[in-house]
Design goal:
Length: 171
């Protein structure tokens, strides 16, 4: 099995018009036409990976609301290092958790490990990727609460508590 990937996919550029090969300057051949270019974050890079990687290793599930890693060994050895700066499944799982992706426990109990989803990570909807944000960790939530308490602003404090409760419920 020979797998071909772009030589440096971590340099792919997202623009308002979708994915464009980068990192050339605007107007250069293969560069994005938008002025608003940034390096792809984890959800964007994962979306690119799912569109380009061999479906026998990782693919969207039918309906496009989740994806599955079919071959963990080939995924770690060939796909991860081609799209990210690591080849460890633990690092991949950590990034998934940071961005709020969830493993489907029902399929996990049936021996189908590696099925993941996020409500805003959908096949055919790359415009939703910009709305996927990092989940604040406990230290970040506590820091926000302490800052609001120092300001002695009861309205801000209640808003921070609501946000912290929402984030905790999502975990």
């Amino acid at each position: 099995l020979r797998i071909l990937f772009p030589p440096y996919p971590h340099l792919l550029v997202f623009s308002l018009h979708g994915v464009a090969p980068g990192p050339g300057p605007p107007g250069a051949p293969g560069a994005a036409v938008s002025m608003f270019q940034t390096r792809a974050n984890f959800p964007q890079q994962l979306y690119i990976l799912l569109e380009e990687a061999p479906p026998e290793i990782i693919s969207w599930l039918e309906g496009g609301k989740a994806f599955r890693i079919h071959n963990k060994e080939l995924f770690c050895a060939n796909v991860l290092p081609a799209y990210f700066e690591h080849s460890k499944m633990a690092s991949f799982h950590r990034q998934m958790n940071i961005y709020g992706f969830r493993m489907d426990r029902r399929e996990s109990n049936q021996g189908m490990h590696g099925t993941f989803s996020h409500p805003r990570f959908l096949r055919g909807h790359p415009e939703l990727l910009a709305t996927i944000e990092r989940v604040p960790n406990k230290a970040d939530r506590e820091g926000m609460m302490m800052a609001a308490a120092r300001a002695k602003d009861p309205v801000a404090m209640s808003a921070v508590k609501l946000e912290a409760n929402d984030a905790s419920a999502a975990l």
